[in-house]
Amino acid sequence: MSKSMKAIVITEFGSPNVLRVRTVDRPEADPGSVVIRVRAFGLNRAEVHFRKGDWGDVAKVTGIECVGEVHDPGASRFARGQRVISLMGGMGRTIDGTYAEFVRVPETNVWPVNSGLSWTSLAAIPESYATAWTFLHHNLSVAQGQTLLIRGGTSALGQASVNLARQLGLRVLATTRTPERTEILAALGALPLIECADLSCQLRAREPAGIDCVLDIIGTATLRDSLKMVRYGGRVAMAGFLGGGLPLTLDPLRELPSGVQFSFFASAFTFGGPDLPLSSIPFADFIACAEAGAYPCVPAHVFDFEQIVEAHRLLESGEARGKIVVRAPN
Length: 330
Hints:
The chain is an alpha/beta fold. The chain folds into 2 domains: 4-124 and 283-327, Quinone Oxidoreductase, Chain A, domain 1, CATH 3.90.180; 127-265, NAD(P)-binding Rossmann-like Domain (Rossmann fold), CATH 3.40.50.720. It has helices at residues 45-52, 119-122, 126-139, 156-167, 182-188, 199-206, 223-227, 252-255, 283-292, 308-317, and strands at residues 4-10, 19-25, 33-42, 65-72, 83-87, 102-106, 110-112, 147-151, 171-176, 191-194, 211-216, 230-238, 261-264, 301-304, 324-327. The strands form 3 sheets. Strands 3, 4, 5, 6, 7, 14 and 15 form a 7-stranded mixed sheet that branches. Helix 7 links the parallel strand 11 (211-216) and strand 12 (230-238). Helix 3 (126-139) packs across helix 4 (156-167).
């Protein structure tokens, strides 16, 4: 008889209330996979879209990242009890995800860690920092001394991007919707700006030649304006859909400035794959900086497993001001 576990299940598409704690079968390792005992997991905007049915049929157990210990290594290189992080690999989309006591993950999407951080602090790192690092190094190809604007700077991804960019020696500007949040950005070492529809006009008045790069986490709602901010040879990367993710029709001839490079990165389909194996991402550096206090990356909010509805309400409200983390049951 199979063993059971607690998991948070999407009972139907809809509001946070559709998330319910249920007893389900515990997964077992199969060839190419590892079973992790989940200790904590971060919340991500993708999980709101999963829950609401915006992206079609998805796994009943959602969640795209976690930290924990190897419970069943199967035939993998991992050892039982080893501390690991895990992200993506189809979790929450095509296979059950991390909102559970145990999760079965492709071996390629598991990475060993050695850290004295608490589980909840460690859980604030994997997806946000891996994504921020990839955008800065791959999409934007940033260099010391350049100027970077981050639109949506108080989000978990935004704050991770500020921390990494400052460490790389960039001059960082970052936006927030409300004046009350500017102190969050200033404390991280960014110059705060209030988000608005024509921010490019304000920026060009101060930087007539344009800035080097923009990381736009708000998305299609601000993308046209972001393209107007950068210099010839500059770069714009869209990193999220905080502004709602409505479709965008762009006329390249009239709306894409000459010499400006625009890109997007879909972490769900890339992390752990041949183009971006987890071994290429410096997780050990992220964790070492967090342990040393160089990155103030503790969770903004920590919830218990049974508080998942409240956690999702906060996530969807856009008022979290940082990473939301959930503790798995002991």
